[in-house]
Amino acid sequence: MKEARLYEKLPDDQVRCRLCAHRCTIADDKKGICQVRENRGGTLYTLVYGRAIARHVDPVEKKPLFHFYPGTTAYSIATPGCNFRCHWCQNWEISQMPREQDLITGEEASPEQIVAVTQRAGCRSIAYTYTEPTVFFEYAYETARRAHHADISNIYVTNGYMTKEMIERFAPYLDGANVDLKAFRDETYKRYAGARLKPVINSLKKIKQLGIWLEVT
């Protein structure tokens, strides 16, 4: 367990998370919508730091990124958790595990270990994928920072529901992103994902503005 970043302390031991566009206000001993960030005594903690529930070598085209080092491989990692609840989620067993099973599990793997395995596997990049990487920001950020210094690129495969503060913080180490644009109607987002359209559009614009390679699914 590790103290979270990108949050603010509020009166009465409450906190406001500034990581994703839900901007959850979380009471003491409660969790945010993602179910992997918990307020304990007025301090917000990430519950998934270093908890890799999936690790695979994938073609970068599977991310899918078709114009970002094509023909190379990406070392893909994920932790449990998501800030959406999409009815069609193909990785729901791990993305919804904290919500559906009240369970957080995964193999302990430090950022240093992830970078070392990536190098041994000969991968050109690390992809934060399968679940929503925004909710394991601290883990992804520390891994990406080390990967950057090892000349390994970093990829976010994301629903795009992050804050501009989060994008700006990650930008120096984020080389590419694939944003899954679920629909172009706000009502569809509300009904099927428990979210809104506008923050995703804002993220697309911000990512492009910061010069991060962007592809949209």
Description:
By secondary structure, the protein is of the alpha/beta class. The chain is built from seven helices and 14 strands. It has helices spanning 92-95, 97-100, 111-121, 137-149, 164-170, 186-192, 198-209; strands at 2-3, 7-9, 15-17, 25-26, 37-40, 43-46, 51-52, 54-59, 73-78, 107-108, 125-128, 153-158, 176-179, 213-216. A six-stranded mixed beta sheet has the order 8-9-11-12-13-14. A hairpin with a 5-residue loop joins strand 2 (7-9) and strand 3. Helix 3 (111-121) crosses helix 4 (137-149). The longest helix is centred in the middle third of the chain and has 13 residues, at 137-149. It is globular and about 50 Å long. The model has no long low-confidence stretch (mean pLDDT 97).
List the uncertain runs: none
**Quick one: overall form?**
globular
Order of helices and strands: EEEEEEEEEHHEHEHEHEHHE
Percent helix range: 25-40%
* Spatial gap, N to C terminus: 33 Å
Secondary-structure class: alpha/beta
Strand content: 15-25%
Oligomer: single chain
Count every beta strand, where a strand is a DSSP E run of 2 or more residues. Answer: 14
Mean pLDDT over all positions? 97
Give Rg in angstroms: 16 Å
Strand order of the largest sheet: 8-9-11-12-13-14
